[in-house]
Write a structure and sequence with these properties.
single chain, 276 residues, alpha/beta, Chloramphenicol Acetyltransferase, 20% strand, globular
């Protein structure tokens, strides 16, 4: 006979981390701005490459380049011991990537400091390597999983401490901007909750180069007009600066090229398929 009763499931360590993140994000008054970008020059150049950088690497570097010219994108709101803005000297991207954890799909965050100074090949390699590296091979992953084993009140107090008291801690723990995308699944987030000043989310890049791009931002730090202008500049950076870099693009070997992509298989051939 079928048992009609449900049953409880304990929260896995990654589930605890996401719950803590959302608990902190509820305190942030987030607003979203979106723009349809015309990336046809970049799309055409990218299609000519036999091995292409993922769109995540392109968008991450481009947004960091915009933040060089717009310091308001490198500011964070701190509430203790008094309300103020902190301007970070550099950008740190926090990229949400889905990977396996003990048989469960889980979201982890890859921090990349000063992505605007790194080549597309390096960014693309680091994003893809993160999908396969052992969890104990990255210090920040070990620390986060260790924190998830602590009591909920202690975890959330640490989150509050890291996000509200010192700008240096906030950068080290959370980063200065986020990147999250479901483009490989044909979907797009309508407005992700975030503790960061800005989180960039892009949809599928169509064959004609159009791409709906959205930024969720902390309204305490900046206003919608600044984000709208930043999106205009994002389009220009992608179609000029990063288009020029594609000419000399030389990819590094990817983990899936040697391990997870047998000949004739289509599995794991889209670089951005792991992005959350």
């Amino acid at each position: 006979m079928t048992n009609r009763d449900g049953f409880d499931l304990p929260l896995s360590l990654p589930r605890r981390l996401i719950c803590d993140y959302l608990h902190a994000a509820r305190q942030v008054p987030t607003v979203s701005v979106e723009r349809l970008l015309d990336l046809s020059p970049l799309q055409q150049a990218r299609q000519k490459l036999s091995s292409r950088p993922g769109w995540c690497a392109l968008f991450t570097k481009a947004w960091a380049c915009v933040a060089i010219q717009r310091p308001e994108l490198r500011r964070s709101f701190l509430s203790f011991p008094y309300e103020r803005l902190y301007q970070h000297p550099q950008s740190t991207a926090s990229i949400a990537i889905e990977r396996d954890y003990e048989g469960e799909p889980a979201v982890f965050f890859l921090p990349i400091t000063r992505p605007e100074t790194r080549s597309l090949a390096e960014l693309d390699h680091r994003i893809q390597d993160f999908r396969f590296c052992p969890l104990d091979a990255r210090g920040h992953l070990r620390r986060h999983l260790a924190q998830a084993r602590r009591p909920a009140w202690l975890r959330r107090w640490i989150y509050w401490l890291g996000s509200n008291t010192r700008g240096v801690w906030r950068d080290r723990y959370f980063g200065t901007f986020g990147v999250s995308s479901y483009a490989h699944l044909g979907a797009q987030s309508m407005g992700p909750l975030t503790v960061l000043t800005s989180t960039l989310s892009y949809g599928r890049v169509e064959n004609d180069g159009r791409c709906l791009t959205r930024v969720s931002y902390d309204h305490r730090v900046l206003d919608g007009g600044s984000i709208a202008r930043a999106l205009n500049e994002l389009e220009a950076v992608l179609n000029k600066q990063l288009l020029a870099e594609l000419v000399d693009y030389a990819p590094r070997a990817r983990p899936c090229d040697a391990v997870l992509c047998p000949e004739g298989s289509n599995e794991l051939t889209t670089p951005d398929r792991w992005l959350h």
